[in-house]
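Intended use. Records like the one below are meant for learning the mapping from a protein sequence to its folded structure. Do not use them to infer anything beyond what is encoded.
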Amino acid sequence: MTTYSKWGGTRAALARAEDRQAAETIPAAGPAPVAPAAVPELGTPEHIEALADAETAQAARDLEAIEERVINGDESVTPEQVEQVRGLARFAHLRREAAARKAEAQREREAEERRVATLAEAQRLMDAAPKSAVYEKLAAAQQAVKELREAIHAYNHGARAAFDTLAGTPEVAPAPFDPSIPNPIGFGYGYPMGQPALWLDGVNVLTLDENGIVKRSLHQA
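Structure written out for the chain above:
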C-alpha cells in the first residue's frame, strides 16, 4: 500500500511539537539555574494553547490537502488514508480541548497562588505594626499621664504646706504687694490682690495648673 506523505507529515508535525514542548521543560546544559518559586508544568497557559492551536491548524491543512487530492482525481489515495488523516485531525481537535482545560486549570492555580501570596503579604504588613503595639503605647501613655498628675498633686500639696508653714509663723512676715513694682525676689509668701501666693524669685509657685500641664504635654508630644 502506498504511504500517504501528508499523513506522515502530520505525525511528524505532532512529534516535533511534542518534542518542542518537552524540550522547554528540560533545563539547558551548564550550571543549574536557581529554580523559581513556581514553575508551570508545561509553560504558560498561553503557550499551551498556542501549541495546541498550531497542531490543530496543521492537521486541518493536511485533511484539506488529501481531500483536495481525491477531488482532483488522485486515484492513489485510499479511503483508509483519508480516514487516517481525518482521525488525526479529530485527535488534534480533542488535544486542543484538553489544552484549553489544562490552561484554564493552570490559570486558576496561578490565580489561587497569587491570592494566597497577597493575603500572606497583607498579613505580614499588618503583623509588622500590630494593633496590640498601639494599645501597649496607649497604656504606657495613660500611665505616664497618671504619674504626671500624681506629681502635680504632690507638688501642689507640698507648696501649700510650705505656704501654710510660712503664713503660720509670726516671725515670717508676708511680702508686701505693690502692682507698681516687681514681685518680691527670693522665697516668701504674701497675699497679692487678697489671694495667697508663694513667691520664688518673683514667681507665684503656689499652685500648678494640672489640666493645663497635661494638655501641654499631649500637644507637645
